[in-house]
Structure formats: C-alpha cells, structure tokens
Amino acid sequence: MKLTILYQDNELAVIDKEAGMPVLKEGPGTDKTVADFVVDEMPKALSEEYRYGIVHRLDKDTSGVLLIAKTKEMYEYLQEQFQTRKVKKEYTTLVTGIVKQDKGTIEAPLGRAPSDRRKQKAYDTNDPEAENKREAVTEYQVTQRFKEYTLLSVFPKTGRKHQLRAHLTYIN
C-alpha cells in the first residue's frame, strides 16, 4: 500500500491513508504501518516517544487524512487542538439499514463490550452499566437513502476508539 503526501513543510505533513493500513503496530504481524512510512519517507521524523509525530489515528479499515507533526512543538500544538476539540472532523460512511431521522446527535457513553473486550459498546445514559464509561458524542446527517443502505456525513465531537461504529450500531 502507498500513502500520498498531500502537503508538507518543515513542521507538518498531511497524508492520505488508504483503508487497510494500520496507523501503528497492532500486535504481531507484518502489515506495513503509517509509522513505518513516516520513518522511511521522513528522515527527520519524531521518535517513537512522540509516536513518530502521528497526532491522531484512523482505524485500519478507515481511509482519510492524517496529520504528522515534524517538530515537538507542532506535535504538542496539534494534540492540544484535538484535546480541546478545536479540530472539526467529518466522515462519510455507508451504513446498512435506513436511518429514519435526517439528522441527529448521538450522546451515549462508550466502554468495552462485555462480549468482546476488543470492541467498544455504546451505553444508554440511564443504564447503571453506563457509570464510569467515557463520554462520546456524534452528530450525523443523512446524505442519501438507498433501498437497504444510508449514506451519512458523520461528525464526531469526541474522539473515542471505534466511536462511529459503536454509535451507529447503537441507533441500529
């Protein structure tokens, strides 16, 4: 797999990640990662301590734009932008089923799924099991409806692991 550099200067690189490529190593395996690409293609990349400058992540099966900081100052600046929710994120996704409302907000805390600890589950805020789960908020808007699918624009307001999958599953 190949990554495309969309923009690059002395402090920042913006890359287009293909679906199927992990951002970082996810256990044993030989998959080429975004981190491998950064180390190979950007000789002045930050060290592993700074995740090679990778400020945020996308799931392995998700394509999209990633920001790579080339300096510690840019890394810390971008992290602060994500943590204070100043970065606006938008995803386009095709889901199975028909989403009835044209737009909406999903506010359901996330925690590990009891059936599979590797996955995340959205909990109803009134569920006693929701206590101590992490806040998660996702806004969505229907772009187009098909016979058995819905195309959505999705705007995560928080950045939790597997947030979009868990929230969209939550609303069926």
List keywords for this structure.
172 residues; four-stranded antiparallel beta sheet; 3 helices; 16% helix; globular
Give a quick summary of the entry.
With 172 residues, this protein is of the alpha+beta class.
Describe the sheet with the most strands. 4 strands, antiparallel
Average pLDDT, all residues? 90
Q: First CA to last CA: what distance?
A: 33 Å
Structural class: alpha+beta
Strands, total number: 9
Helix content: 10-25%
Radius of gyration: 18 Å
Q: Encode the helix/strand succession as letters.
A: EEHEHEEEEEEH
Strand-residue proportion = 25-35%
Q: Report the uncertain regions.
A: none
Put simply, the count of helices is 3
The dominant shape is globular
Widest sheet, order of strands: 4-9-8-5
Give an overview in words.
- With 172 residues, the protein is α+β, with helices and mostly antiparallel strands.
- The protein contains three helices and nine strands.
- The strands form three sheets. Strands 4-9-8-5 form a four-stranded antiparallel sheet, with helices on one face.
- Strand 1 and strand 2 form a beta hairpin.
- The two termini are 33 Å apart.
- The mean pLDDT is 90.
Secondary structure: elements and pairs:
Layout lengths: L3 E5 L3 E6 L16 H8 L22 E6 L2 H12 L7 E6 L6 E5 L2 E4 L2 E7 L14 E9 L3 E8 L6 H8 L2
Antiparallel strand pairs: 1-2, 2-3, 4-9, 5-8, 6-7, 8-9
